[in-house]
Amino acid sequence: MPVASPGSVAAPSMAPAPAARQGRAPAGVDRGALVARFEGVPATQWGTHLPGVVTHVSAGGPGRPLALTFDGCGGPAGSGVDHALLDLLERERIPATLFLNRRWIDAHPDLVRDLAAHPLFEVENHGSRHLPLSVHGRSAYGIDGTGSSAEVVDEVLDNHERIRTLTGREPHWFRAGTAHYDEVAVDIVGEIGVRIAGFAVNGDGGATFGAGQVRASLLGAESGAIVLLHLNHPQGGTAEGLEAALPELRASGTHFVLLEQGRD
Question: What three-state secondary structure class fits 174?
């Protein structure tokens, strides 16, 4: 199914499999019980690479796997669509995991349905309000995070349910806005039954890199790395940088995998 666009239609860190992999559906989570269980639990850690945050994939077979992930962050300055990037992924048959925030989804519901139905892509959860995930309101890049266990649960589940309702597919992965967490928030996400996708390579610097920087980031990625990029800033260098890196990546034996293909 073509994607519509103007003019065209460290050592690997792997989190343990959560309960959803053993038959527990996130749709069956008791929000009230989950909030109560974690209310008042203190958090002391903060960052992007906490235990339980997956930064690498483990894909069998020959070659060098990379997991390309693209965030659609939404909001007044973040609801654009990089159609050149989507066209490149489709033209070059590159599988990619797309982390979509509810604001971006609400701006592009028809496109999200198309992306979710496309065999190259998996649509995953980038939160409801694009907030850092904290039980104490910790901030990152000037963005205040969630401030309680209840807000953590809402940030994850509200958009989870939006994706399921819109696409008919259950998200299996979550990435917070800014990709920052405290350890209590990480535990809450695990209890919901989804995995947290971190990153080993910040591929486009929050959509601020030029094409040359994106190319260098991709070429420097180690085998199994989860690469964080963006699909909501068409003025950035993400598409051009990826296209420039492709010949060398493929010559080196790189193949691209979805997160679900590369999970343990």
Answer: strand
Within 8 A by CB and 6+ apart from 7, the residues are none
Q: Are strands 53-54 and 195-197 parallel, antiparallel or unpaired?
A: parallel
**Residue 157 burial (CB count, 10 A):** 20
pLDDT tens readout for residues 62-117? 789 999 999 999 999 999 999 999 999 999 999 999 999 999 999 999 999 999 99
The answer to whether 129 and 102 have CB atoms below 8 angstroms apart is yes
- Residues 238, 47: contact at Cβ < 8 Å? no
Tell me if residue 237 falls in helix, strand or coil: coil
DSSP E strands: which ranges in 42-159? 53-54, 64-72, 96-100, 121-125, 139-140, 143-144
pTM above 0.70, yes or no: yes
Residue with tokens 């990709």: 179
* Integer Cα distance of 73 and 184 in angstroms: 23
Residue with tokens 């000037």: 142
Encoding tokens for residue 72? 């659609």
Residue with tokens 């209590």: 184
Q: How far is it, in rounded angstroms, from Cα 202 to Cα 71?
A: 12
The DSSP symbol for 139 reads E
First and final C-alpha spacing in the chain: 29
Q: Which amino acid is at 12?
A: P
Q: What is the pLDDT of residue 18?
A: 34
Label residue 161 exposed, middle or buried (CB < 10 Å: 0-12, 13-18, 19+). middle
Q: CB atoms < 10 A from the CB of 177, how many? A: 26
Per the document, the length of the chain is 264
